[in-house]
Structure to design on (184 residues):
């Protein structure tokens, strides 16, 4: 059986060779929610995250240079991250203060992505920890990337990723406990 990441690479190569729209749709459906969630952690705006996700897929569809040095997913998320950083630099984007999110009882629009209440609590808590911790935890646990893949996406060494992930898990646990989350 072919692993999903190998399948993604084969599907992408076939898409580039044959321009089969069904191949592109498969790749879009497979990764769009995770990519949007990851991009949201940079721009803190669902519409901007969606636009960046579409821009990322537009670059992929245009035949951007995928050399197979990483998995398709790692490459896709790296493109998305670079687009988010360019957007933030261009607009001198001001991020939402995490304390405002904590005090706001209204549910932000990104909650549509996560359907069950337990995940909503988890995402609320994630939104209240350091951005760097949140990004790494999303890649490791929501997107199930390996530490090596996260290194490539984030441009950090493995030891840094490991330390940030451990600090992030601790910060998330503390935040969830303050929110009254029950681990049982």
């Amino acid at each position: 059986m072919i692993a999903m990441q190998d399948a993604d690479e084969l599907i992408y190569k076939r898409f580039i060779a044959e321009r089969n729209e069904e191949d592109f749709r498969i790749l879009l459906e497979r990764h769009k929610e995770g990519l949007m969630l990851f991009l949201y952690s940079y721009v803190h705006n669902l519409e901007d995250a969606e636009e960046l996700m579409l821009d990322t897929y537009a670059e992929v569809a245009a035949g951007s240079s995928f050399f197979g040095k990483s998995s398709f997913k790692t490459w896709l998320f790296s493109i998305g991250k670079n687009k988010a950083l360019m957007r933030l630099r261009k607009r001198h984007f001001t991020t939402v203060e995490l304390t405002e999110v904590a005090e706001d009882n209204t549910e932000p629009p990104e909650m549509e992505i996560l359907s069950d209440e337990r995940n909503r609590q988890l995402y609320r808590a994630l939104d209240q920890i350091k951005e760097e911790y949140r990004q790494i935890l999303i890649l490791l646990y929501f997107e199930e990337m390996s530490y090596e893949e996260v290194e490539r996406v984030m441009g950090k060494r493995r030891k840094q990723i490991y330390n940030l992930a451990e600090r992030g898990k601790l910060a998330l646990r503390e935040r969830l406990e303050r929110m009254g989350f029950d681990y049982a």
About this structure: The radius of gyration is 17 Å. The CA atoms of residues 3 and 9 lie 10 Å apart. Confidence is low (pLDDT under 50) at residues 93-105.
